[in-house]
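Hey, quick one: can you model this chain's 3D structure?
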Amino acid sequence: MKKAKLLPKRQRILERLGENLRLARLRRNLTMEQASERANIGRTTLWKLERGEANVRLEALLLVLSIYGLQDDMLLLGQDDELGRKLQDIELLK
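Sure thing. Here's the predicted structure for all 94 residues.
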């Protein structure tokens, strides 16, 4: 299987997500050990998420978001698809 290489801009997005996860954990005064235990994932997996590494399961992200009460944030992804709506409207006008 070919491993995808992330462009720098996309890598920065993952790093920012990781930073946001780390800040959410720190705001709740949780150690990495506590957070990983509550999310039922390994400490290494949490560490990778917080560093913005791309090779972490989506399920692990959902589990971590859940312990912070932020799981519904995943539902916001792609919700406001402005470009998709414009393309759809163009087709409807034909």
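One thing worth noting: Helices lie at 8-27, 32-39, 43-51, 58-67, 82-93.
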